Amino acid sequence: MKHNIYLLASMTQPGFWDGLTIREQESVTRYLEDMNRGTVDGEMDIERRENSRGYYTHLEILESLKNENEQSVRDYTSALQIDIAAWLALKPGHHEVLTVREFLD
After folding, report:
1. What is the per-residue pLDDT for 69?
2. Which of 42, 62, 83, 99 is the most buried (most CB within 10 A)?
3. By C-alpha distance, which of 15, 10, 42 is closest to 28?
4. Of 35, 41, 49, whose CA–CA distance to 87 is shortest?
């Protein structure tokens, strides 16, 4: 699965959905639903972390990129920092986004 499909900058590109497989479309749809719903309590937050759901998806992607090379990690981290700013502009105080931002700092 492509890593950048979970970044808002990718999602807003013309033809984005057309370039995805059915599985990728389902995954991105679930991701967006998770992001819009947010976490309602600590138990849900733990479940999402453990299953790499919602914004925690990005932590799993970063971990997988460590097996490739350091430049891939740096590139994705840079893109993720831009994505974090975009999400926080849309949903200020989003718990998962803030948690991932803390992880990057």
Report:
1. 86
2. 83
3. 10
4. 35
